[in-house]
Amino acid sequence: MRIFVTGATGFVGSAVVEELIGAGHQVLGLARNDAAVDALKRMGAEVHRGDLSDPKGLSLAALECDGVIHTAYNHDWSQVAAAAEMDRRAVEVFGEALSGTGMPLVITSAIGLLSPGRPTNEDDAGDPHSLGAVRMPSEEKALALATENVRSSIIRLPPVVHDRTKQGLVTRMIALARQTGGAAYVQDGLNRWPAVHRRDAAQLFRLALEKGAPGSRYHAIAEDGIALRAIAEAIGRLVNVPAVSKTPEEAASHFGFLAYFVSADFQASSTKTKEALGWNPTGQGLIADLELAR
To answer: Which residues are CB-contacts of 172 (< 8 A; sequence separation ≥ 6)?
Structure first.
């Protein structure tokens, strides 16, 4: 199949492009600038020049292809609502382009829109009180497209998508540890984050594209939950600083916007995803990747 991929040169998107090409698919990648154009060409992909602010261009690219994988997202925390609305509009545009075709549309969402502090799985809808709730309209639109003969599905990514070079939200924690001289966690640090290796996540996007059921949610979770204290201790070893506990009040000033996530306990299962798509994550775990980052 010929697949249009947004975010095609991003951390996750570039792995998706390589996974698709490796499996024999053709890729048309969205590129915002010359550097992205060059990167896509080196990967062996075709190029569509543009960005998420151009609905006409997105529609034309989707119409040229046999399906869409949407990984692009603006992670500027000063524009949370605007980024979520741009994402929703993109999903809407792709839905209109693919309506009635039965072709696949795979969009990206986040475990962070689920209720923290309790076990969650693929059947759980978003929690409107969560910090990630801004992404719920995109999920709802994607699910609704299944009634319009679009084979739409959702991949929820965990807070930590990692390899040896980058580790999602943990990368921000590493930077803070270097700046402050301490690798911080909150209270006892027993709250957990799920994680997945970048290559395993990319494989799941391909499987959802090829085999995903209309209106399905899938969880890209290889490790159900890693204690934040264990993550902080690994960061401490990496940058040679002590792991330190912060009170909730101290965490708010220390972590800034990250405090909510560092304090939250996200428990997420991918059992149903593995059963439905035959996904078998084999990549290295987060702590091992942090050890090798040295």
So the answer is: 258
